[in-house]
Amino acid sequence: MSVELQSLRLSSIRYEAEGISSFEFTEPAGKALPAFTPGAHVDIHLPNGLIRSYSLSNDSAENHRYVVTVARDANSRGGSTYAHDSLRVGQLLQVSVPANHFALDEGAAHTVLIAGGVGVTPIWCMAQRLRELGRDFKVVYASRSRRNAAFVRELEALGAQLDGRVHLHFDDERGLLDVASVVRENAGANTHLYCCGPVPMLEAFEAACAHLTPEQVHIEYFKAKDVPVTADGVELVLARSKKTLRVAAGKTVLDAVLDAGIDIPYSCMEGICGSCEVAVLDGIPDHHDSVLSDKQKASNRTMLICCSGAKSARLVLDL
Length: 319
Known about the structure:
globular
């Protein structure tokens, strides 16, 4: 089991804001790239051996490039720091075909897009698509300050086109954004709401949307809200590989699978990218990811094995 990869050229690096840059990837021979939808991400295989998932920020109508927008993280585990300090225009990198766990419902009567910090990346992609479709939507973007905010000029221009339906909020000027008020003022029966940003914003958003139907609420974490759990002593049956393993103390399910020599895609190791999602054939997972919905978790049909453990003594996976 492997993810389809493409060898793409890093064709440009653009400064977006303090600590934030966009990286544009193109096909070396100028061929069209596999299509993507708003909210999609790609896995980038960095030359230092790390694999990192980044949301696509460019217009999904474009088929000649992928653009990812990356913030330098002071607590980086090596991904964002490497991207900012070591990537150079002209390099060839392995990039996955796009996948989407934060899909836009293009048929919604009204859409509210809420972003915090670099969480604006998929939100900006969605805004471009909704503008092209002529849909009714609003954008609310919060950042610590104007100098830390990506796509400000583009969003201001969009706001001028949309009669002020783009709201930029800078904490150093107005204090923290009241996410609950934004939801309360905009959440009608036919409204779909999307949010991507830091964990406190997303937790406030989830709490404010608790009264809405799950179909209306869309959320993407770019940092883990939960700590990955180990699966000490769990019996792990890999159905297709005809292997039975015992997960060692302190190991995750993913650790055990990789130690057994099974080739499986993975990236973030935190349950936020969805790369390692696996079908569960038997047993009860202990879900700790930020990708699956509550309904999906309750069904126990799949699990993200990088961060989730087991409530049962035995798990049978479709591997």
